[in-house]
Amino acid sequence: MSVRQAQGPAGRGTRPGLWREGLAALRSGDLRLIWLAQVVSQLGDGVFTLGIVVLTVELTASGLALSGTLMAQLLPYALLGAPAGALADRWNRRLTMVASDIARGLVVALLPLLHLTGWLHAWMIPVVAFLLTTGGLFFDPAKNALVPTVTPAGALVRVNALLAGTRQVLFIAAPALGGVLAAAFGTMTLFWIDAASFFLSAAILARMRVSGRVPALTPGPPSPRPSATPLPQGGRGAGGEGSPVRGHLLRDVQEGLRYVWRVPVLRLMVIVGTFINFILSPLPVILPLLFLTVLGLGTAAFGTALSFIFAGFLLGVAFVGVSGSRIHLGYLTTAAMAVAGLAVLALGAGPPLTVIHLIGLAGGAAVGIMEVAETTVLQRESTDAVRGRVFALYESVSQGGRAVSVALAGALSDRVGLRAMVYAVGALTLACAVLLALSPPVRRLARG
Q1: C-alpha to C-alpha distance for 261 and 141, rounded to whole angstroms
Q2: What is each CA distance from 268 to 263, 280, 377, 409, 442, in whole angstroms?
């Protein structure tokens, strides 16, 4: 059954039907628990992000130490992402999420506990950051693989929009809350809060009714999606749900790689997504310097521009959540990528501040649309038994490229100039959009 067939009469382009469907999706008990756990956990993540930066500065006052901590957060993607995704496709996904939250809560609690004993040293901070990201490598593929199984038919786009929008709101609000709490009760309070948020999230997820077991993938088409491709025969046996044949871990990783390579849409999304992440990742380094040193707009102007970008992200998420089921996701992703490229090019021209605000809205909306659309495509076009590996591979290569890109951004901007870097980012993003628009997999996805 296709998405349109699953929608029935209410999905024929009427906005009230779309809203009813979105609200009905959140009424699903397991989906509501996943969303609530995300709210709790990401509120903790937001205060942790502030706390780990402040703690590093307090202990070292070193930019190099802060850079090392940030790199430690990205390194696990390159080293452990693919094996973690393979394990997420072996293990019970609900239990994997619960165990990951408990483990991360214990890791974060080490910082205030070591501080109480007087044994906390600066080198321990990047170690904690590395371990925390490693725990997330198991949680995120399990969650992204589980969400489609607990989402009502036809509501996946709106559910992904809800999750992305919630994450963005907490990304904005949580650091501000963390700043108030740190000023009132000290930096270590932030880590106690984050640890508690992981434990509470685990308790919420443990209440889900879905079994979380990974279904065996038998030979032949296992999915109603026409483009979803089964694993090669021999990779998983027909042992029934929850009893896949346990092969070597490396073989599972290789199966995931072969699966992505054999499905044209997945292969394209991973390659283009990696390249786009690599291209856009320097912007957090370049834009502050562009505003403050080239455009001469000042800190306040940069802060308001960021607010418009964040607001645009929420508008983009809302748009795709309401209209995504009526718009082909392939073309929607392509259009959003083109808008993002044009927005970056326009920023490089140094327009008036009012125009910059409008550009920020458009660029933020484009990023929000791309995130929801890409997540939905990866979920729809992969079968349940391999979905964890698909997301882990995507995150591994894209985040690994991001780490390299951020490391190169500062040196390149000093050599070629900030404005030239901004133009290069915009032009390359536009080039990616053109290639995506011309690719046969996107056109086939649009027809489906």
Answers
A1: 18
A2: 9, 18, 11, 25, 8
Place of tokens 């991360």: 104
Q: How far apart are CA 96 and CA 141, in angstroms?
A: 10
Place of tokens 């090392």: 68
Q: Which helix (H) or strand (E) holds 384?
A: none
pLDDT in tens, 44-77: 888 888 888 788 878 886 666 766 777 788 788 8
Tell me how far apart the alpha carbons of residues 435 and 448 are, in angstroms, rounded to a whole number. 20
**Tally of CA atoms within 13 A in the half-sphere of 83 that contains its CB:** 9
- Give the chain's domain count: 2
d(CA 54, CA 293): 25
145 and 276 both lie in a single domain: no
> Is the domain of 341 the same as that of 269?
yes
Q: Which residue has the higher pLDDT, 172 or 363?
A: 363
Q: How confident is the model at residue 193 (pLDDT cuts 50, 70, 90)?
A: very high
Q: Is residue 421 exposed (0-12), middle (13-18) or buried (19+ Cβ within 10 Å)?
A: buried
Domain shared by 86 and 187, yes or no: yes
Largest CA distance in the chain: 65
* 52 Cβ contact partners less than 8 Å away, ≥ 6 residues apart: 69, 125, 128, 129
In the predicted structure, residue 394 carries a pLDDT above the cut 80 = yes
Six-digit token pair at 380? 């729809």
Give me the residue label for tokens 């006052």: 61
CATH assignment of the domain containing 284 = 1.20.1250.20
- Continuous H helices in 186-297: 188-205, 249-262, 264-280, 283-289
Token couple for 196: 């508690």
* Helical pair 387-416 and 264-280, crossing angle rounded to 10 deg: 30
- By residue range, what is the domain housing residue 140? 26-155+174-215
Contact 51, 178 (CB under 8 A): yes
Task: Check residue 254 and give left, alpha or beta (phi > 0: left; psi -120 to 50: alpha).
Answer: alpha
Q: What is the spatial distance between Cα 134 and Cα 394, in angstroms, rounded to a whole number?
A: 15
- In a domain, residue 225? The reply is no
Residue whose entry in the numeric block shows the structure tokens 């434990």: 199
